[in-house]
Amino acid sequence: MKKRILGKKALSLALCLGMTVTALSGCGKKSEESLVDKASSNSKDYVFRSEDVDLGGSYDCSNVAISGDRVYATTYSKNGYITIFSFNPDGSDMKEIKIPESDNEGHGYMTYTPDGEFYTILNIYHWGDDEGEMHTFGPEVYDEDTILVNSSEVDTKKVEDAENDAATEDSSVDTQDTEVSTEEEPVDTDPEAPHEYFDEDTDEEEYLVKYDAQGNELFRIDLLADITDEDDYFSVFGMAYDDKEGLIISSNKGIAKLDENSNSLKTIVDSSQTGGNNEYYMGSMSIYRGFNGKLYVSKWGDDGMEFKSFDPSTGQFGEKSGQFTNYEDFAFFGGNGYDIYVSKNDGIYGFDYGKDELVKLLDYMDSDLNVSYSLSSLAAISDNEFIANIPDEEYNYHLVRLTKVPAEQVKDRSVITLGGLYIDYRIRLKVYKFNQESQDYKVKIVDYSTLNNNEDNNAGLTQFNLDIISGNVPDIMYFSTEEPVDSYINKGLFLDLAPFIKNDPELANVEFVENVFDAFKTGDKVYQLVPSYYINTFSTKTSYLQGKEILSLDEAIDMIKAKGITYTDSFGLVSRENILDAGLTAAGSGFIDWETKTCHFDSDEFIKFIEFAKNFPEHLSDDAWMDYKETTFIEGESLFCPTYLNGFRTYRRYVDGTFGENVTLIGFPSNLGKNCSVLIPSQRLCISSKTKNSEACWELVRLFLMEDYQDEFEYEFPIRKSSFDKLAEKSMERQFWIDDDGVKHFEDDTYWIGDQEIVIKPLTREDVDYLKKFIGSLDNSNTYNANQNVNNIISEEVAAFFSGQKSAKEVADIIQSRVSIYVNENS
């Protein structure tokens, strides 16, 4: 098997417009023991020790399983083979067999019998060229989604690689074949060489293959032989071996067993038929072998994950478990002891199906394991011992043995809690390293997103807010963009970090991007540490502006009228709600002063803004979408483009692609007399004013300002000036990545307009200087301060103006009154 590294996906137009999402508000029932209390308890019951399993070399394993009295570990493809290692549970009697795997092949769903025979799904891919001729993948063919890395960012590549490994099923095919170089330095490939990639002409073969215990192929079955309709397909979801019925396969067709007499699949449960009350129609059921050979299935349903036992001899399912209703990652695996084992994003659990009871056995953080997702490559020797494929701090994977440490042998350390929602993996990595190095403290992560469930997808957000209000808060709090941090600051919930920075010998004299660093201050206090940020703004052709760098709302209206463009088209096809959200995101902070508890929604500027928003349609018609052209900004049919800058390189996408000529970043047009662009923190860290371990908290938080961390940012702007400058210089170079053989591969960013591919050039020195000047012009009036409660008040009241029931002045006065009350009550 081979691993594929996927590129980052572009963010949506809605994000560019700065549309706000649900903020921290509302009420909810607090659990008997909060997540913070659980994390602070410093339990020693979930600690495991890890030690490498010696495979005689460095291998990344795609699949780990236990069958009979042997453990099996399958590696990804290397030098034209996958290797299957097998050994006794204690690690003795290590054996290996090699299975050939070409560049266009992938083996997955390795399933073993008690006597060592095994089954696998073999996929073989071919691709078609422009003349329709089919080929297998050969040298210099690369997946268009392969991530691009610069030579100084190999660690970032490893991190991206690890993230994808965590989400990858047992089968993964890498379409990349590389050129071997014996040179020490990277060798440039031809930058003008044509780039080949997969398209809809890709052809696939899929086989079920059985091997004996020595790796000799016994037979193969063509799984696509009966697929004759071009809209039909066959996709395997899982395989398990039943001691009586043999191999059981789950797929998009249902569940079937292999008849080895006829080499065919016999349907047990049919999920492809629509007739009758077929609750399994189109169900994506995965199947697992548990303790004592019992089988279980899982599939996502209306109420979360549905997990049941399954009897292949009768085709009957057992009762559905009630343990998997939250929106979490679950990975099920077999072994000895519990009926089945479950890996979640915080640890490993044993599951007693009869009692419908989930018992935590191992905690990743307590065990100093660099894991924050549900592991899929592991097997249980017992409930006290596991074999697993786990990354180290450099994201190199190792096959390790995890053995429970008796509680009395676990060293006492004070617990520091770090809480938030969907905590960034880079934050988690620093926590992992901190825990490995600290002798006196252990940081426990409290991820409130684990509380989200089918009934309430904001349950975690609500509980986080309740904990903050009640004072039962983590020592360190992690925020992204949507939490009302300013409101929390005004309540005195956070420590001022300025003295910590001043007294830190490694940070006291560090130069930051000063205006941005200061923008997130409150007066001269540093209540929130912002390691990185991005910018939402609006761009237009420089040629339209006659030397101006910003536009007032009046000037924007005059330009729209002068060019004969409709309001709907002027911003690239947006609705009234889009404009209202964009304006509030960009300029809304100019109407509230949280420090002085004053508002200015009754000002002429705000009245002018809502009058402007009224010109846009309430809803966009289907015809408007059908008539929309990708060349609208190039041809001058639209003027102001929502622009998302998550690094220097993004700027050229608007120059070379969207507009096809030089652009100016004008922000949202307003009558406030300033550039209404928005500085948005991508990460924010605050230390609770109630923590008893402020110095220890700082020892962790400071790491996010250090050069090694700051230099890793590529898709955000770093706050450290030296790292910011390095990112700027790098943006003037062509992107490339270096393969395992030291070969450098160039690949340009591209922009598509219809069938035309436009190559995005590296930035020029003039571009970089302009962007630095632009970013340097932003200040604390440009920071994004999310507060959905304020936005809700505005949306509720402004509707009366849009419908003609009240004047703009009347609505503005009501908004002024309501928001003033809210600000005074929540400051």
Overall mean confidence score, pLDDT: 84
Quote the CATH topology of the largest domain.
Answer: Neuraminidase
Largest sheet: number of strands, sense, barrel closure: 5 strands, antiparallel
CATH superfamily of the largest domain: TolB, C-terminal domain
Quantity of strands, as a count: 41
Low confidence ranges? 1-31, 137-200, 274-278
CATH class of the largest domain: Mainly Beta
Considering the chains and any ligands shown, give keywords for the structure.
alpha+beta; D-Maltodextrin-Binding Protein, domain 2; 827 residues; single chain; Neuraminidase
Question: How do the helices and strands line up, and which of them pair or pack?
Answer:
Layout: H1 13-16, H2 35-40, E1 48-52, E2 61-67, E3 70-75, E4 81-87, E5 95-100, E6 105-112, E7 118-128, E8 134-135, H3 154-167, E9 187-188, E10 203-211, E11 217-222, E12 236-242, E13 246-251, E14 254-259, E15 264-270, E16 286-289, E17 295-301, E18 304-311, E19 316-317, E20 331-333, E21 340-343, E22 347-352, E23 357-363, E24 378-382, E25 385-391, E26 397-404, E27 414-420, H4 425-437, E28 441-447, H5 459-470, E29 476-479, H6 485-490, H7 498-502, H8 514-519, E30 532-541, H9 553-562, H10 567-570, H11 576-587, E31 592-593, E32 598-599, H12 604-613, H13 622-627, E33 641-645, H14 650-659, E34 663-665, E35 678-681, E36 684-687, H15 694-701, H16 707-710, E37 717-718, H17 721-730, E38 736-738, E39 743-746, E40 749-753, E41 756-760, H18 765-776, H19 788-802, H20 808-825
Parallel strand pairs: 9-39, 27-28, 27-29
Antiparallel strand pairs: 1-26, 2-3, 3-4, 4-5, 6-7, 7-8, 7-10, 10-11, 12-13, 13-14, 14-15, 16-17, 17-18, 18-19, 20-21, 21-22, 22-23, 24-25, 25-26, 29-36, 30-33, 30-34, 30-35, 30-37, 31-32, 38-39, 40-41
